[in-house]
Amino acid sequence: MKKTCHLCLSAGNEVMFRDLEDYHRGFNCFALALYKTGSTGLAEAEMSTHMHQLIQTADPKGFMYCFRQSYGMYFNHKYHREGRLGEEHHFTMEVVGYHHTVAAASYTLRNAVHHGVTPTPYAYPHCSANAIFRREMGKFLDEKILPTRSYSKYIGRRAEFPDSYKMTESGVFTRESVLDIPQMEALYGTPRAFNFYMTRKSSEEWEAEQKKDGNPLQPVNIQLIERGVGMQDITRMIHFESGKANYRKISDIELCTELDKLARERYGKHSVYQLSLKEKLEIAEYLYRVRHIDEAKIRRCLVLPRR
Questions:
Q1: What is residue 294's DSSP assignment?
Q2: What's the pTM value of the predicted model, to 2 decimals?
Q3: Pick the CATH number of 3-240 from 3.30.70.141, 3.10.310.30, 3.30.70.1290, 3.40.50.970
Q4: Residue 231 has pLDDT above 60, yes or no
Q5: Which residues, 6+ apart, have CB-to-CB distance to 79 below 8 Å?
């Protein structure tokens, strides 16, 4: 029997998605894992250091194993890396009841806002916020769909997927073809209600509403939804709900893309994973002293250990 679950996988001290291709491949692996395990996808958000997934499944461990195995193999091959990608254990939370599900879905879709990456969920491309009530919300741009024979270039020749999955010319499955968008739209009811939840601030009132579901589960809030992600400043995340973040600062994807290009062109390496500690520290010193980039960002993008 399927249960609704929120899953969170953290990369620990690393960056899980280093460039646009990684984000696309990550979602494709998510889609393939859904199909392989007979699971249903509801909402998701891929951040540079972790990902949140709201799915209906009878086997959450099996689903996560399928995702981690396929994406980890891709990532290690691309960056000439070895070992398990991500922390040893992922976080799983069962979701029961209407209010509990709305809160879990909303916090998942608003994750980029809470991490100070974008001012609204709609400005973040690596989550399913723009797939829900898409046309009613005025999002009419459609990317060209590839013929099925071209999919293998982006997911491998042995990948199995249903005929309903459609892939854009960017090499990523459309969220509308992978996720149960009708179920999500029925959950929120109207575009106006959906927009309300995408901008609603965290509050005790929101947590109290979830008790109406009559289940003994802990109400969903930022602390709970981020339990699978270490070293998070919850106070700062709540502060970002008001749109008070520096959105012009260099992002992880921008810095990682730049660093991997530097590793190839200046040092003759495949990625930062092949750089020596001395080379990494030289680069880190420049980024910190000259470009004034945050130390934590430098360390995770260069794969340097935390102090």
A1: -
A2: 0.94
A3: 3.30.70.1290
A4: no
A5: 18, 260, 270, 271, 272, 273
